[in-house]
UniProtKB/TrEMBL annotation:
Organism this protein belongs to: Paraburkholderia haematera
Source domain of life: Bacteria
Protein name in UniProt: Tyrosine recombinase XerC
Family the entry assigns: Belongs to the 'phage' integrase family.
PROSITE patterns: TYR_RECOMBINASE (PS51898)
UniProt KW keywords: DNA integration, DNA recombination, DNA-binding
Gene transcribed to yield this protein: xerC_10
Domain annotation Tyr recombinase: ranges: 104-329
InterPro entries (UniProt xref): DNA_brk_join_enz, Integrase-like_cat_sf, Integrase_catalytic, Tyrosine_recombinase_XerCD
Amino acid sequence: MVVRGVAVSSMTVEDCEAYKDFLVAPSPAFTGPKRSRAGGRWRPFAPGGLSPDSQAYAVRVLRAAFTWLTDVRYLAGNPWSAVHDPATVTREVPVQVGRALPAGLWTGLRAALDARCAGDEAEGQDAEARQWRTARAAILLMGDSGLRRDEAAHARRENLRLLSLPSGGAPVWALTVTGKRRKQRTVPVSVATVRALREHWADRGRDFDAALDSAPLIVPLVIPVTGTARKKHGGAVEASYTTDAFGHLVRQAIQRVTVEFAARPDVPKEHLVQLANTSAHAFRHTFGTRAVARKMPVDVVQAILGHASLQTTSIYVRAEQQRMLEAAAQYYAADDGPG
């Protein structure tokens, strides 16, 4: 309306194409530094225009808006239906497999968690052990099943089942979760994880093995004193962790273990650095790297992790190959010497 003097109801395909060009390089009157929308100096675009991805997103939004205006008969037609999206490049998904814990560190962390969870009946120490048992269940649920933080936080008991295998082997625990793009998938759950969950449920005064028990797998045992938290967790129905609170539970436990490891001479410095920078999502990567290292088929790893593309899962394979080559190089260097 401002640049071309055309009303929205009169836009043509040529006007839409002109707007696409405008998104590449908005005129100076529409650009400016970031400011409050309430101020008179606010402008809709930053200097330099939109990125190709943002341009394509803007076109899709406008096309959808005009489709709705056409459906409600405000417009006679949708000129954006004849306009192609701006060209974009689909970038490789940056899966940060370097965050995965090495096998030795993962084993040491689990041993440290088990020791912390033992606790005793002394006043205060048993309450602390219960909190450690909550954190251990959360970490194992991600590290042994490859769940995302949100998936683990909202996992429920009624979706965890003991399934018999057609081959006649030992039954396997399986958990159904809803992940990205609202897609359901079923992941295996280790015996160690189920054992940790049982202890966490015992701390809650609940029977983990009760038939058809409907409740979150993991819930807070220590409720903050804020009114919102009290209201959320004060009812008869147990409330699950929020995604951020779940991540905070895990990070807090890892930070305390890192302090403990720092006083031990047998823990390498690089392990301390990695553990200090470990987030909840790192345990999902830990599962991926361990699964590939143990020769689990890549398509099975893809299904468990819920990757839409096998290309994403293959990053774990390339990372394992890289580790193998580096280890081989060090092995040969010890015999052959420099060069």
